[in-house]
Amino acid sequence: MKKPFRNILTLGFLLIGIVVFGQEFEFDIHNTSLSKYLKMEQDLDSEQIPNIRNHVSFDGNAQPIKFKRKQKVISDLVAYYYFKKKDSTMSHILYEWDESLLTLKSNTNDKKSKKYQKALIKKYNDLEKTITEIYGKSKSEGDLSNLKQANEKGGLKKKDKWFPNDSTEIEMYTSVSNYYEKRGIVTTAPTHRIRLYIRNKKKEKKIEPKLSEEKLDTLKLISQEFIQTLGNKNLVKSKEYLSELILKTVTDEQLNILIDNLDFNRETELIYSGIQAGLDGSIFTMLQYKYKDDLSNPPNELIKIGTFRKQSIF
Questions:
Q1: How confident is the prediction for the chain on average, in pLDDT?
Q2: Apex CA 24: angle with CA 64 and CA 173, to 5°?
Q3: Is the pTM of this model over 0.70?
């Protein structure tokens, strides 16, 4: 009689585990309202945090709502909820664990660091298992089995994608790397991160993006703030304006070179603004400034500032 009893207990623990994950994440983005997501964060005692950046969208998205959840061992989870301004329909969600301040330059064998890395990999594997139980096997790339590779160039990487239906995409990837290298002005820094995206891929009627006066004024203000932080040589603040793509590779040396090539005592004026499409289909705006006292045609010097859909300078 004891053996069936143990089986029942085991089943009970499995069910509890699934319920806990269900309380932390809701993957059905089409049938879950913004208010339900916010209620979930409230029930988890998450802390709502302010947006550092003003996200400028050409897809009708409102400013995202952000929450921070306390975690054990690994970095706190930051959740980003993106939704349409007109009707609060969910656009996409990002869950991010990112220990960007973890420095392993000289402590790659430190016990605490290894404990962190193992915990991060376990978190990824647990999430992968849970999503696979719901939606089936993922399209997967990479491997996390050999922790020694974290000390090598490239580190440990893994990416998984699920397609629950033709209008939903779930993507999760992780990077676990202790590798540090400084070569000239290029620095490769350690990375310890998990990102989990839930995207609403439902096709909508395509609207040709337009740069309204309101958006242009916002972008001009952002550009002026960025240039001002450079003029003050506030590199930490300046990096808050950089896109994720640039932030991964930019160094203090490069920012200082940019500062040395700008004349902050000369007044600038906007001579061009427009929307452009990148090679990957991404939409961004381009603002071009010249020094006001430069009467040459074309100007001798141009300052070009590009911004992605959200307020990030590239």
A1: 80
A2: 70
A3: no
